[in-house]
Fold this sequence. Notes:
Blueprint: E1 2-6, H1 11-15, H2 18-27, E2 32-38, H3 43-46, E3 53-57, H4 61-69, E4 75-78, H5 83-92, E5 95-98, H6 103-112, H7 122-128, E6 166-169, H8 181-190, E7 195-198, H9 204-214, E8 218-220, H10 227-236, E9 239-242, E10 249-250, E11 254-255, E12 261-263, E13 266-267, H11 284-287, H12 317-326, E14 331-335, E15 357-358, H13 359-369, E16 374-376, E17 380-384, E18 389-396, E19 401-411, H14 415-426, E20 429-432, E21 438-440, H15 441-447
Parallel strand pairs: 1-2, 1-4, 2-3, 4-5, 6-7, 6-9, 7-8
Antiparallel strand pairs: 10-13, 11-12, 14-19, 14-20, 15-19, 16-17, 17-18, 18-19, 20-21
Helix pairs in contact: 4-5, 8-9, 13-14, 14-15
Amino acid sequence: MKILVLRFSSIGDIVLTSPVLRCLKEQVPGAQVHFATKAEFAPLVAHSPHVDRVHVLNADLRTLIAELKKEGFDHVVDLHHNLRTANIKRALGVKAKSFPKLNIEKWLLVNFKVGRLPKLHIVDRYLSSVANLGVTNDRKGLELFIPPDQEVDLGSLPPVHRSGYVALCIGAAHYTKRLPDHRLIELAGKIVGPIVIIGGREDSSSAQRIADAIGGRVFDATGRYSILGSASLIRQAKSRDHARQRVHAHRERVRQADGQYLGQYRSRFRHGAVHPAAPGACTYLRSIRPALPPVQQDRLRPLSEGALPVHGAPGSSAHRYTCERIRSMSWDIFIQDLPDVASAKDIPVDFRPKPLGEREDVVARILRALPNGDLQDTDWIFVNSDDIDLSIQLHMEDAEQVRYMVAHVHGGVQSAACVAALLNALGLRALDSNTGEFFDGATLDESL
């Protein structure tokens, strides 16, 4: 059987397809496995013993379709499931199976932090698309094959890095998936020993700012190596931090507190050498972690003496919010265009939030409401005083439009009042990430 597997991007997602390629090759008698992807990601599968041929997508999809038509495939496995792969499947006209992308569930999680995604690892969702071929998960984990000529000789690194280093991967396909520069500098400052910064040429300016701030123990490898050369540096590191963690995922099952399986794979290092309980550890890291049962929520630092107190009468919005968030260190408030319903569970499936406005206007309105706010890195506003510990993160629709914002209350007896003032100034409601309920500035004001 001649099988075509489709996955065009990106690094982590393609590495996550490796169990599918292996299981197809080993479990389907006589399988010829072809893989189609973008040119820049072709090396990730080009050396796999489970892939017979790689087809490359350049600028013109029609050229790729013409090439694929000549192969005479029996079956297509679509692990990308978008408009381009739909065009390919339609053009080939053979049996095809797509993995469940769960776009609506992902949209609810991204926009409203409503968790409706199944507790099923992405690898198992990928493998569900080949179950009709009799393929099952062999539980051997992820693979990435690096040929000898792509391995990086540690002797070519600066002398201080040759006996061991931490790999800090700063790149990401989307801006909202990476830490801002000032947080990367903070993180690098807490890492002990030599650091190798890994990323593409587009990450060089950020790497230079980190190197300037930290000093000579940082080696900037951005843009110096191929994608497999970078993987080689990650493989040889003493520990790895941030973006390309999937390359080093291990196969240990992770159980939640109730004994349910979370999935077969988990990264060895979610956030590198920063210990979760380190005093003053980067509070931004918590905001990008997936929601976990309370017993598993990492505490990045203990609450300060001026921590957020319990506000309002029992049963009121402020009382409930502050009681629930004190235990988890930060009260996270999502502010964006919301439908006229009571809570996130009531959001219509066809609702699409509008951007909040242009960045310059949104920032000006925030600073008018919170005049002691400090704008940093264009996307972060920090409000700190003896009674306030608040940060506001802007999430962008594009280069100019703000899609939504997240306010993180870390402590301070006046921080909740600042949130109420912010909501009143913007004329918006907010979403409590824990309960899924909506509230506005007036409601919060009345409860304080």
